Inverse folding.
């Protein structure tokens, strides 16, 4: 259950769960080594946010503005982005496992350079990104995500096939 009283973005706790951050705008904010779980960010605007070595597990970002943000070593596992502006944001060594995007402006190149290594998780993220692009009317971008999703699916099926061959060989030899 999300708490009712908002926490100010100027007083980011080092750790927290079920916190509400709402209705604040600023620029040039720096955060580091923060661990937040299942928090809600609603109508938070931080232009030129610099975030480093933070975990935002299962957080929901609604109508947020992180344009031109710089995110380094951020774990967004299980988070949801709705109606957010992440255009021109930079992502380095970030985790987007089980993340969903809905109606968001994103920096495609940056997100693509941070896709999960696991084919099933990569495929799930690519599907979300494709749907997001379609929602935004960005058909060429959606096609790019579809092509990557097809490549990922082939990789996944190839790995399954080779795994089955190894299993069959082990069963025959023993």
């Amino acid at each position: 259950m999300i708490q009712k009283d908002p926490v100010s973005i100027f007083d980011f706790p080092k750790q927290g769960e079920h916190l509400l951050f709402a209705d604040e705008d600023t620029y040039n904010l720096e955060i580091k080594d923060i661990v937040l779980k299942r928090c809600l960010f609603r109508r938070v605007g931080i232009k030129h946010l610099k975030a480093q070595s933070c975990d935002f597990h299962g957080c929901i970002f609604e109508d947020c503005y992180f344009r031109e943000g710089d995110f380094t070593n951020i774990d967004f596992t299980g988070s949801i982005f709705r109606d957010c502006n992440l255009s021109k944001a930079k992502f380095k060594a970030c985790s987007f496992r089980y993340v969903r995007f809905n109606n968001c402006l994103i920096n495609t190149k940056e997100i693509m350079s941070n896709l999960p290594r696991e084919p099933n998780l990569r495929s799930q993220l690519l599907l979300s990104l494709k749907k997001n692009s379609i929602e935004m009317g960005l058909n060429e971008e959606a096609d790019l995500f579809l092509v990557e999703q097809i490549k990922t699916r082939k990789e996944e099926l190839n790995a399954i096939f080779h795994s089955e061959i190894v299993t069959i060989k082990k069963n025959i030899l023993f």
